[in-house]
Amino acid sequence: MKKVTLYTDGACSGNPGVGGWGAVLIYNGHEKHVSGAEDNTTNNRMEITAVIEGLKNLKYDCEVDVYSDSAYVVNAFLQGWISDWQRSGWKKSDNKPVQNVDLWQVLYGLSRKHNLHFIKVKGHADNKFNNICDKLATDAIKKFKTSL
Q1: Model pTM?
Q2: What are the residues whose beta carbons fall under 8 Å from the beta carbon of 42, sequence distance 6 or more?
Q3: I need a surface site. Which of 15, 40, 50, 76 has the fewest CB within 10 A?
């Protein structure tokens, strides 16, 4: 199985507002940068979208180290929330519906295809690739706003 490193970040100008996401895929010494933006979204949605879009760029089933500064995304996997949500019909322990269920369902499906390892990184710190992802996300927001 191919081993890939994926760094991701999401950002939002207003929450909700215009949001952007960025991802850097690293395989065999090569980097691929991807990003995008959308209107009327939230930071959490952009954090999840960054992981989804990064994984969608993989042509084969891979073992992926996913680095994110989002506790929301990382803890969903490391603390087993996503499996619990899936088993309970996408409801939380208080029986309320899971927010962003549309995105979580896509990410859950991708997690069944790839062997994912989530690693929490500190945001806006000295992590080179997290900083690149942040810039990709914020640049996508700026580009989106100028296209309106």
Answers
A1: 0.96
A2: 12, 15, 16, 19
A3: 40
